[in-house]
C-alpha cells in the first residue's frame, strides 16, 4: 500500500536583503515571486501544513567561511536578515531554520525535523533559483524527500542560470510545477 504524500512548505530567504529595494541582494524582478509565495503560504496556513522559514543568518563577532566568496551579510539581528513584510512565522505549524550556507538542509536539523513529522515531499519557494533553491532541492532529494519547485515562486537575477537550475531539478531531483499544482499539494 502506498502512503499518501505528506507535504511541507519551505520558504527560502524571504528576508529584507532580497526583497527590500536598496538592500544588498535586491534585484529587479524579485518582487514577481511575492504573490505566488503569499498564495503558497496562505494555502499552507489554511490547511495546517507545516511551514519552514529557512533564513540565512551569520554570527556578527565570528569569521564565516562563506565570506571568502561573498561580502559580510545577514548578521543576527541586522535589518537585512529580518523577515520581509508579511512573511513572518505565525502559529504552531511554522518553524524557523537558520542556515549558514545556501542549502536549508546543510548543517541544520531540517531533515531530522521533517522525517520526524513524516514529511515525504517539500514544496520549495524563494530566492535565488540558481543558488539557495537549487542547493535546497538537491539536499532535499539527497535526504530522502521529493522536492517540488513551483516555477512562479522562484527567480534569479541570472535568468539563464535559473532556467538551467530548474531543468536540472526537474530532470534529476524532483519536479518543477505550475503554481496551481503546488497549491493543490499544500491544500
TrEMBL record:
<keyword id="KW-0378">Hydrolase</keyword>
<dbReference type="Pfam" id="PF00857">
    <property type="entry name" value="Isochorismatase"/>
</dbReference>
<feature type="domain" description="Isochorismatase-like">
    <location>
        <begin position="7"/>
        <end position="177"/>
    </location>
</feature>
<dbReference type="InterPro" id="IPR036380">
    <property type="entry name" value="Isochorismatase-like_sf"/>
</dbReference>
<dbReference type="InterPro" id="IPR050272">
    <property type="entry name" value="Isochorismatase-like_hydrls"/>
</dbReference>
<dbReference type="GO" id="GO:0016787">
    <property type="term" value="F:hydrolase activity"/>
</dbReference>
<dbReference type="InterPro" id="IPR000868">
    <property type="entry name" value="Isochorismatase-like_dom"/>
</dbReference>
<protein>
    <submittedName>
        <fullName>Nicotinamidase-related amidase</fullName>
    </submittedName>
</protein>
